[in-house]
Amino acid sequence: MSLQSSIAPHSSVPFSIDTLLDVAGTYLPAQALEPIRQAYRFAEEAHEGMVRRSGEPYVMHPLAAALIVAEMHLDATTIVSALLHDVVEDTNVGLPEIRERFGASVAHIVDGVTKFEEIGRRQRNWADQQASTSDEQRKSRERAIKQQAENIKKMFMAMAEDPRVVLVKLADRLHNMRTLDALPAAKQQRIALETREIYAPLAGRLGMAQIKWELEDTAFRFLEPDAYKSLVSELATRGTQREDYIARVAEMLREELAQHGIYAEVKGRAKHLYSIYKKLVRSGESDISHIYDLFALRVLVGTITECYQVLGIVHAHWPPLPARIKDYIAMPKPNGYQSLHTTVICEEGRPTEVQIRTHEMHSMAEFGVATHWYYKEQGSAATLPTALTTWISMLRNWQDELTQNATDFVDTVKIDVFQDQVFVSSPKGDVFDLPAKSTPVDFAYRVHTELGHRCIGAKVNGIMVPLDYQLQNGDRVEILTTKTAHGPGRDWLNFVASASAREKIRQWFKRQHRDDNISRGRELVERELGRLEQRTLSTITSEMLTVVANALEFRTAEDLFAAVGYGAVSPQGVVMRLLPRDETQTTVLPTEAPRTKDAGAGHIQVMGVGDLLTRLAGCCQPAPGDQITGYITRNNGITVHRSACSRVLNERESARLVQVDWGRAVDNNKTLYNVSIIVRAWDRDGLLRDVSASVTEERVSIASAAVDAHPDGSAIIHLTLRINDIDQLSRVFMRIERVRNVYEVRRDGGQRSQTA
User: Fold this and answer.
1) What is the DSSP string of 403-423?
2) Which comes out higher in pLDDT, residue 32 or 637?
């Protein structure tokens, strides 16, 4: 008997405790069902009189979560915990009573899930405070963020102790997402965004593909409704044609394998919506037919030997795309996933992905860590995948290394755990997973902190490479070292991809000479001020610098500059606090690229008076957050320039210059402003694509782009972005700076031929 894909799609058909017992009874012994029945009665009494927003009795929610857990074939302890997961949080029942009646394991899981709920509540409180404008409210908001980070850290530590805590929470979140329509639109957006950023990647890291896909697709429906509807419509149009094609090639492959004595289960694999959408966005394509694995076959066989035999037969029948062959059997993913992947040019010239795995590998691919408890119940091997236990150990190590700052821990988890990954090996053959775009430096610090500090060079596949070389799947990495730790280079922070390596580098510099860090920090802040064409540090009072330092919890401005110098605080974060800003606007990122809207100057006040004829100057393109000055034209009202614009600085008729400010927005729809920037880089294939992708990651639209390549190998990219304010522009700058070969990003200071 093997674990099969059995999570039922969301349905409005009523279910009851009998439904749960029927599902659990298919794989659990009869004596294990009685505790489940008792837990349901207990939950029903505890939640008596409580109703959900949909109007149904509240107990239906934990019952639905328990049914999802049972459909994953988890053990009886986890099902009982799912039934009781909201009892401590929402009723007068205490944890000691849970422990006494249902045991320590259930109490531990329920306690862990309750901590998850605490995280969610603090996130909601923090979101509600986004409109706060006073210093005290802002400080309160920052304290809430830090507390949230502490709780997320506790969450991952609880998961490291018993992953079943997370499995119950994922079931809880999955049912909440299935019933999200009952909530107001604002809550739908907040919960969907949290789901996509935290819970879906977490399900993926635990190897639970079915849960991950449904969470992502449901979040996609609420966060990008227009794109979702368009994609669903396009797939529906092609649906019958695609199904016929898959059925035809599946039968062809089935017959071909049978001729070679291999009797396999061959079926079509549906690509989930959000995955298709992400590939379209990354590739810049609008035609889904260009997605290689839109058409996919899955082949299930009995043994590993047969997996490789099938791969050979597939390649003999259809020509493969060489760069699209991946062997996750020899090199499993950290979550235990194993399979052979290949993309072949199939019938009618269509690229078609074929996945080949054993039935046991398929169980792990669909349910990941949940498979462990299923096989334990069946009396089979019950060890977690080695790569997964290694990852859990890594979480514990991070806790030790980053104890001084919970926010650093959360950043590390988000980057190192939830990003796309590459798999590389050491000279001894040990496999390591790293975030996408990792370098040999990231690898060195992943192996050991001391190895990172002693790193002076690297070989990849036996060939010397620069330290900023981006590692690829399957690379064999050898680190060259000195006998003693000489420490990292300051430029390493510009290209390392893993948060754990970044933190270890920062800690090294923090221990170095304070004066050097202060000087370096001043230089970085000065550079950021100049890049945004605002002003110099000499124009900012020491009192203002002290206020900003205190707001960031540093005693003096020198302490703040030292922190910038060793990388603990970004210069962009300091500059954003130094610049004047519209306190009525929040800096929360939109969940999708804003729709194009003509930038105007309707929110600008002239000498404190609004509703005067104003327009934004095309020569310097001011945006909210810039210091601005008005110029009285003869026939077109007042043109608004940045105060640093040469037209303003060189204006001889000073009487025509008037004081203006950005005033207050009169609606909730942020206006977009055209801002031109210059990106200087060493030219390479894909440079413009990668720069554009980094802008898109910040949910910013590109109005125009042009590239000038030079004989010396350098390139200048001119981009016109449509941004909300200077805060957003600074974040875009940080993104672009991380692109390989980019060495300078700044606003375009060139003056155009337009008149004031």
Assistant:
1) TT-HHHHHHHHHHHHHS-EEE
2) 32
Strand order in the sheet with 657-661: 605-606, 657-661, 628-632, 638-642, 614-616
pLDDT at 533: 57
CA torsion sign, 678 to 683 to 688 to 691? negative
Same domain? For 80 and 186 the reply is: yes
Decide if 131 contacts 370 (C-beta within 8 A). no
Overall domain count for the chain: 6
Q: Residues 115-134: pLDDT tens digits?
A: 666 544 544 444 444 434 45
Within a domain: 444: yes
Sign of CA dihedral 402, 407, 413, 416: negative
416 contacts 435 by C-beta, under 8 angstroms: yes
pTM comes to: 0.55
Q: Are residues 315 and 437 in the same domain?
A: no
Q: Please compute, for residue 151, the number of CA atoms within 13 A of its CA located in the half-sphere on the CB side.
A: 19
Q: Same domain, yes or no, for 197 and 318?
A: no
Query: Of 374, 373, 391, which Cα lies nearest the Cα of 335?
Result: 391
Q: d(Cα 737, Cα 723) in Å, to the nearest integer?
A: 18
Q: Provide the b/e sequence for 687-701 (b: ≥16 CB within 10 Å).
A: bbebbbbbbbebbbe
593: in domain = no
Residues 543 and 622 in one domain: no
C-alpha pair distances (Å), 26 with each of 73, 77, 79, 466, 618: 9, 16, 14, 56, 70
Q: Which of 178, 197, 223 is the last residue of a domain?
A: 223
Distance CA 35, CA 46 (A): 16
DSSP string of 652-714, one letter each residue: S-GGGEEEEE----SSSSPPPEEEEEEEEEE--TTHHHHHHHHHHHTT-EEEEEEEEE-TTSE
Going by pLDDT thresholds of 50, 70 and 90, the confidence category of residue 113 is confident
pLDDT of 13 strictly over 70:
no
The DSSP 8-state label assigned to residue 183 in this structure reads S
H or E element: which one contains 300?
A: strand 296-301
Which residues are the active-site residues? Answer: 89-90
The predicted-structure confidence for 487-500, as pLDDT tens digits, reads as follows 888 789 888 988 77
Do 202 and 245 fall into the same domain? no
Specify the DSSP class assigned to residue 385. Answer: P
Q: Identify whether residues 266 and 338 lie together within a single domain.
A: yes
Output the domain CATH number for residue 678.
3.30.70.260
Structural domain harbouring 234: 226-377
For the record, the structure tokens of 508 come out as: 């090294």
- Last residue within a domain, chosen from 613, 638, 661: 661
One domain for residues 704 and 657: no
Q: Note whether residue 551 is domain-resident.
A: yes
What CA dihedral angle connects 183, 185, 190 and 195, to 10 degrees? Answer: 60
Query: Can you give the CATH number for the domain in which 356 is found?
Result: 3.30.460.10
Helices and strands, counts by H and E, the chain: 29, 19
| Residues 521 and 410 both lie in one domain | no
Q: Confirm whether 5 is domain-assigned.
A: no
Question: Residue 147: enclosing H or E segment and its boundaries?
Answer: helix 135-161
pLDDT recorded at residue 205? 72
How far is residue 210's CA from residue 216's CA, in Å, rounded to a whole number?
Answer: 10
Six-digit token string for 353: 């992905």
